[in-house]
Design goal:
Length: about 450
């Protein structure tokens, strides 16, 4: 039975502590400070629903750290949103921005609601109210939201409009990224997270760490989640010659040994609102998808999908974390023992925030770059990130970097890629904190 603690705070602490055990040169107090969110904003607000009834919604906007610049992070609409989850996701954004070298800090927002049960008009009213509740929190140079689970470019357009009405006479396009192209959005932003997954996977495979697969072409890929990120990743991997053998959404999954025809899956999902039941496919559960026989597994839905209870059964050789926090710390240890490599979320899905940064830069200059320009800049950043993490991992693996714990003196194992990525990001934020004189 799986007795693992899946609490978001506990998981985030465990990941941080694992990374910080390799940072014997940083002061303990500073490390403790970096764990804490800078500010947690909570609000409850009433919204009139279409049937005339009024419902109170709770929302959060958390800023974890602003050492490198304004807070940056998505807003999710989901019934399971909690303060703890938003805090841990804001923290993740701090490390992600530091790792890809974009001048943002970490933030995240969420509204507890079930978007599947809400009409477009209700979602618009919720979004406008969320924005006015936090009009003094978000801002072009303080905290810049973006889309996340069950929010999209339409949500960003509503936020921009509401903020703009409340702050007239300024260039307010910078207040959100992931906007529609016609409202100052960037070409390639909608696709950036899935496209970034492809770039990091290509670069990782080119290192030839997994002898059986050194390129995307010919790989058998399973993807959990067929929303923005999952569907774009599926198409991008397919274009490079991969075979997408399994896909899923919240209703369940589908499997086809010979590979799925993505155009047909998209058309089927549009008609039936889910992928399950697609002709010529076998129906599988989301749990079965995780342990299916494939080369590359891409979790692109929600957190804690790979855990102590199923990690031993994973057959993929590489996991590319398109979703945030899909793997638990206990699963990380099992996967490392079993020789399954994980490209962690702060690397694998960093394409989204990277192109969000490009959008912010374009908005400052009132420019709109061509898609080719955006994608070539994105590819460069993603490849640099993989190279940095890979080089440091190699240094650990061959003993170039010392791996003894300062306090216990114990010999530490070679860290996995998540630990190396986190370690590198935390060190960068710590260094900037010291340079700015924030730490006394
Ligand atoms: P989305 O709302 O467009 O899609 C979410 C998908 O997950 C849908 O297909 C939904 O059916 C599926 N899903 C929901 N609950 C599920 C469950 N219990 N089991 C299996 N599938 C389930 O969201 P998105 O923007 O594609 O985001 C997906 C993940 O990627 C999230 O974890 C998000 O935090 C992360 N992410 C997104 C971006 C971005 O730019 N959109 C950037 C970085 C990270």
């Amino acid at each position: 039975m799986n007795k693992e603690n899946l609490d978001h705070v506990v998981i985030s602490e465990q990941q941080f502590d694992r990374a910080s055990s390799y940072m014997d040169h940083l002061q303990t107090g500073l490390v403790d400070f970096l764990k804490q969110p800078k500010r947690i904003n909570i609000s409850n607000f009433p919204v009139e629903l279409d049937d005339g009834s009024v419902k109170t919604f709770r929302c959060y906007r958390v800023i974890h750290n602003r050492v490198f610049g304004p807070g940056k992070g998505g807003i999710r609409y989901h019934p399971d949103v909690t303060e703890e989850e938003v805090v841990s996701l804001a923290k993740l954004m701090t490390w992600k921005c530091a790792l890809v070298n974009v001048p943002f800090g970490g933030a995240k927002g969420g509204v507890i609601c079930n978007p599947k049960e809400l009409s477009t008009n209700e979602l618009r009213r919720i979004t406008r109210r969320f924005t006015s509740e936090f009009f003094d929190v978000i801002g072009p140079y303080t905290d810049i939201p973006a889309p996340d689970l069950y929010t999209n470019e339409q949500t960003m357009a509503w936020i921009y409009d509401t903020y703009d009405v409340m702050n007239p006479g300024k260039n307010n396009q910078l207040v959100v990224t992931g906007k529609p192209i016609d409202l100052g959005g960037s070409y390639g932003r909608k696709e950036a997270t899935g496209q970034g997954c492809l770039y990091v996977t290509e670069r990782f495979l080119s290192k030839r760490l997994i002898p059986e697969i050194d390129e995307i072409a010919g790989t058998r890929v399973a993807i959990q989640g067929f929303g923005n990120v999952g569907s774009v990743a599926a198409k991008a991997f397919c274009r490079q010659g991969a075979k997408i053998i399994a896909l899923s959404d919240s209703e369940g999954g589908i499997y086809a040994e010979k590979g799925l025809n993505l155009d047909e899956v998209i058309a089927f999902k549009q008609e039936h609102s889910c992928v399950v039941g697609m002709p010529g496919t076998l129906t599988i559960t989301n749990e079965e998808l995780i342990t299916i026989d494939c080369d590359v597994l891409i979790p692109a839905a929600i957190s804690n999908q790979i855990h102590a209870g199923n990690a031993n059964n994973i057959k993929a050789k590489l996991i590319v974390e398109a979703a945030n926090n899909p793997t638990t710390p206990a699963a990380d240890i099992i996967l490392q023992k079993n020789g399954v490599y994980v490209i962690p979320d702060i690397v694998a899905n960093a394409g989204g925030v990277t192109v969000s940064y490009f959008e912010w830069v374009q908005n400052q200059a009132n420019e709109q770059w061509d898609l080719e320009v955006v994608n070539s800049k994105l590819k460069k950043k993603m490849c640099q990130c993989v190279d940095t993490i890979f080089k440091r991992w190699q240094d650990f693996a061959c003993g170039e970097e010392k791996i003894t714990n300062k306090e216990s003196g114990e010999q530490l194992e070679c860290p996995d890629f998540r630990t190396v990525a986190l370690l590198t990001a935390i060190e960068r934020v710590a260094k900037a904190t010291l340079l700015r004189g924030i730490w006394p």
